[in-house]
TrEMBL record:
Signal peptide: none annotated. The lineage of its organism: Bacteria, Pseudomonadati, Bacteroidota, Flavobacteriia, Flavobacteriales. It comes from the Bacteria. Pfam families: PrmA. Keywords: Cytoplasm, Methyltransferase, Ribonucleoprotein, Ribosomal protein, S-adenosyl-L-methionine, Transferase. It comes from Capnocytophaga catalasegens. This is Ribosomal protein L11 methyltransferase.
Amino acid sequence: MTNYIEYIFDVNPIEGAEILIAELGEVGFESFVETECGVSAYIQKDLWNDDLLSDIFILTNPDFSISYQMKEIEQVNWNEEWEKNFSPIVVDDICSVRATFHPKPNTKYDIIIDPKMSFGTGHHETTHMMLQHILRMKLNEKKVLDMGCGTGILAIMAAHRGATDIQAIDIDDWCCQNATENISHNGFDFISVEKGDASLLAGRSYDLIIANINRNILLEDIPTYVKSLNPKGTLLLSGFFIEDLIVITQKCEDNGLQFVESIERNRWISALYTL
């Protein structure tokens, strides 16, 4: 049996929790449970060391106040943990996001997500806004990429809006497995899932690229996304704060994109660009 080290983080303002999760994932933390005050994070004891948090930059960011406690625990039943914290949601009164154990609601679109250790249940502001954007799109005969797909929720929403040529990519093995499961739950087995990063996009082209990833990765990969967009293609981005919109938009404009619109939610923002 593998024991884990559990960190319980209190994050203020709470918007920093997603950044913290992203940074912790890069140093070996494999599971996260978002809480009202922040996030609980888990790493296998064999992968833990005293200096593990020294490269977590948000912990020294003066814009955030983050405290934590840690302890060793026995192997966690991850399904039980997220089931305790996952309640169904409704987006714009027409799209529900629920788990398999929730009753089916009376909405036009019903997305079934068993997130387990993957990010993307619709609860977080960035995913919620991305769903709102996609709900406004007509995607029939469009080729779509969900970059950094997490649970696959945005690829699934694109399928609901008519797309039948959809690829989902994530750098994490577990996300790829979980996205594949969720895609099957929703009956969209034509969505392909691959492990990798933006380097996979060489020679590929899409009408719509969706990327709900952190600010730094977006800034690095926007040129690659643009090269992979078809004429009049659309780039839909989130994963960053309102104050980051200026630099994200500048990067997009430097690469030939035009800003179209954005949605804001609790300091987070999602922005739409076209060629």
